[in-house]
Amino acid sequence: MGKQKTKKFAVMKRMISLKDQRIKEKDRAKPKETKKKKDPSELKQREVSKYPSCLFFQYNTQLGPPYHVLVDTNFINFSIKAKLDMVQSMMDCLYAKCIPYITDCVMAEIEKLGMKYRVALRIAKDPRFERLPCSHQGTYADDCLVQRVTQHKCYILATVDRDLKRRVRKIPGVPIMYISNHRYNIERMPDDYGAPRF
User: Fold this and answer.
1) Cis omega before residue 175 (within 30°)?
2) Which residue among 30, 73, 114, 130 is buried most deeply as judged by most CB within 10 Å?
3) CA-to-CA distance for 187 and 178, rounded, in angstroms?
4) pLDDT digits (tens, 9 = 90+) for 92-145
5) pTM of full prediction above 0.85
6) Residue 37 has pLDDT above 80, yes or no
7) Residue 62, CB-side half-sphere exposure with 13 Å CA sphere
């Protein structure tokens, strides 16, 4: 007796490989390119981020009176709590003329806070404060301030927000103004005459 032929299950028909010569050239799979061995004597190319010419190591040469201070939302609120006149306190801290700047994002944030922060809104609309227009979408002020400070190294950033301070500390040459024991203080500024000595 001969062997019985049993039907094999799940057997696929044999298919032509995609590299086969019988397939049209446009449908054919392209052969893989072989990797070239790297020459050890070849120079490595790396992209190094360009540093602005205004920096002398960590020292920013563009900072000088009159100082341009970018103000954050919470800085205005904490100044009101500490009963500090913003422009006067900035001048006391730096012993020079200061021009506070407010971006459209910060203004929008204060407006969103509602009636509870109407005093902050009135202070932000002070004619001594300069307005900076924003061209980006959305009203998230932190990203806007970080981007501005990175592009133009002529600003001092005034904020009380820890996360924002942490982000700005990674950018060289940007001083941070903050509030401590009912007065303004400044960090990362070598020639800050008015900053209290600890």
Assistant:
1) no
2) 73
3) 8
4) 999 899 999 999 999 999 999 999 999 999 999 999 999 999 988 887 899 999
5) no
6) no
7) 17
Q: What is the dihedral of CA 151, 153, 159, 164, to 10 degrees?
A: 50
Handedness of CA 80, 82, 83, 89 (dihedral sign): negative
Q: What angle do CA 128, 129, 131 make, to 5 degrees?
A: 135
Q: What's the confidence (pLDDT) of residue 198?
A: 58
**Band of the pLDDT at 45, cuts 50, 70, 90?**
confident
Q: What is the DSSP letter of 64?
A: -
At residue 134, what is the residue type? Answer: C
Residue among 151, 117, 118 at smallest CA distance from 132? 151
Task: Give the whole-angstrom CA distance, residue 184 versus residue 95.
Answer: 12
Q: Which residues pair with 187 in a beta bridge?
A: 176
Residue among 167, 187, 176, 173 nearest 53 (CA): 173
Amino acid letter, 136: H
Measured distance CA(195)–CA(34) in Å, rounded: 63
Spell 122-144 as b/e; 16+ CB within 10 A means b. ebbeeeebeebebeeeebebbeb
